[in-house]
Amino acid sequence: MSPPTHQELREQLARCPAAELADLLVQLADQSTEVEKAVQTFLLRGDPKALARSLRSRIASVSRGTRFFFRAEVHALARRLEDLLSTIEKDLLPADPLLALRCLGAFLASDEKIYPRVDDSSGVIGDAYHEACRLLGNASTAANQPPEATELFLSLSSKNPYGTRDRLFDEAARIVAPDDLQAIVDEWYERYQEERGEPLPGIGVQLSAVARSMGRLSLFEETLLGGRSLEDVPLFTPQLVRVYLEHGQPETALDRFRTGTKDKHLFEYSAMLLELHAALPAHDEISRRLWEAFAASADSSLADAYLERLPAGERDFIRERMRQHVRTAGFSLLQQAEFFLAMGETATAAALLENGYNSLTESDSEYSLVSLARRLENPEPLAASLLYRAALASLLRTSNSRYYSRAVHYAKTLKNLSEEITDWKAAPPPERFWQQIREDHGRKPAFWKKLAQASLP
User: Fold this and answer.
1) Of 80, 185, 218, 270, which residue is least crowded by CB atoms under 10 Å?
2) Is 358 helix (H, G, I), strand (E, B) or coil?
3) For 24-28, 162-166, 338-342, 443-447, which range has the lowest pLDDT when averaged over its residues?
4) Rg for the chain (alpha carbons), in Å?
5) Taking Cα atoms as reference points, which of 148, 132, 38 lies closest to residue 93?
6) What is the pLDDT of residues 368-410, one digit of tens each?
7) Distance of alpha carbon 382 from alpha carbon 350, whole angstroms
């Protein structure tokens, strides 16, 4: 029986008598200092000053620790930090935004003592501090951006060795009053001009984020590019395109897209193109670019976007033209099958795989094979089986015993699917497939042992 979801657990607890819940909390508090502190904080919701003192005490308690949190342990620490932020947001901020501002300042300053003691390769601790920056913007806005918020922003932004305070700059326009922020920007811009040409003009990165938060897009672009042209640093094209779109300037976004994608090899090219498609539905250049990108990739999302721009009466003709292009333009078997499946033509995708399974190559990644196979299992078990066979063989070719358990899992899936297949068509039946696997990989005893333990094939 699976454990209840959080919502189900909440509903069950809501039906319990209050006295019984109180007894349970007291018992848990006796067993855990953290629970005790959380209960005490909960009881202080009606007294903002006392609640703020309790929260600062809990922040200090977490900061004073000395033990190192390894990757497997870091989520427990992240939950403690998230609980603190949740209490600040739900209980303290509505009652007293200024006290919440001060608590969030203490929370953000704690990174200097906490972050050196964690393996945050999962990013969960950094996420907590980024959330604190967002809440600082909420608290300052609710407190009418007091002078104290400006002082706190300057103090916190002057130190950021771990990148945990990066979002402060994104929230600058909500944290700092307009006149104060303008004065900060003027001072930072002078420093930026002095630092230009240095190997790492750090103030420019901060100034760029602040300019974005203020909506000063020309300053944002200038400092983002560091005085270079977009043609010299096309890597920044996606960021510029999205910022101009966010601020309702699609034509400027298109201009930056043109400048930065002349070679069309940016990783995010298609994503930018789809965003421009949504913002500029009547633009001929977007239609042309969508067709070019589809023709080069067989990406069904680009095909859908291109078709949306056409009159309804033209779509069937163009859809057929797309089908013919995908079949004849040299795309891999997987690319073709992916396209037809995405276009809702499951039988066509399956037929391609069944007739051309021998063209599945070693270059086809296990992830791509299995991802497509999972979507075909129910409607087309034969096609799915051929993909799982290719995935299993690709794992064995690595000769890495760490992957053999996954290969056995695919073997189990193949056995289950074979029970649904009555006609193997041109594909080798299971016994011939396994005969070939044994011929190719018979000298991998660890795999065959695992297979025998699973009573397979």
Assistant:
1) 218
2) helix
3) 24-28
4) 29
5) 132
6) 999 999 999 999 999 999 999 999 999 999 999 999 999 999 9
7) 8
- Give the list of residues 6+ apart from residue 216 with CB closer than 8 angstroms, or none: 185
Token pair for 67: 């033990």
Output phi, psi for 69, to 5 deg: -100, 110
Distance separating alpha carbons of residues 3 and 12, to the nearest angstrom: 12
Mean pLDDT to the nearest integer, 234-252: 96
Q: List Cα–Cα distances, 70 to 76, 120, 165, 406, in angstroms.
A: 11, 8, 22, 27
The answer to whether 456 and 412 are in contact (CB under 8 A) is yes
Q: Which residue do the tokens 């811009």 mark? A: 189
* Per-residue tokens: 137: 């913007």
Place of tokens 């397979």: 456
> Is residue 118 a contact partner of residue 164, using CB atoms and an 8 Å limit?
no
**Which residues, other chains included, contact 220 with Cβ-Cβ below 8 Å and sequence gap of 6+?**
208, 211, 212, 243
Cis peptide before 97 (omega within 30 of 0): no
Q: Which residue has the tokens 């060795």?
A: 161
Which amino acid is located at 56 in the chain?
R
In the three-class reduction of DSSP (H, G, I as helix; E, B as strand; rest coil), residue 118 is classed as strand
Q: Token pair for residue 291?
A: 């067709």
- Closest CA relative to residue 168, chosen from 223, 202, 131, 143: 131
CA distance 433 to 457: 10
User: What is residue 69's three-state secondary structure?
Assistant: strand
pTM summary value: 0.78
The size of the chain, in residues, is: 457
| Token pair belonging to 278 | 């949504």
What are the residue boundaries of the structural domains of the chain, listed by start?
A: 28-63+75-176, 229-331, 346-457
DSSP 92: I
In contact, 419 and 374? CB cutoff 8 Å: no
Q: How many angstroms separate the CA atoms of 132 and 85, rounded?
A: 7
With CA atoms as reference, report the closest residue to 91 among 51, 137, 60, 35.
51
Question: Encoding tokens for residue 264?
Answer: 């069309």
Separation of alpha carbons 129 and 151, rounded Å: 19
Confidence of residue 198 (pLDDT cuts 50, 70, 90): low
Closest CA to 206 of 227, 185, 190, 235: 185
Residue type, 429: P
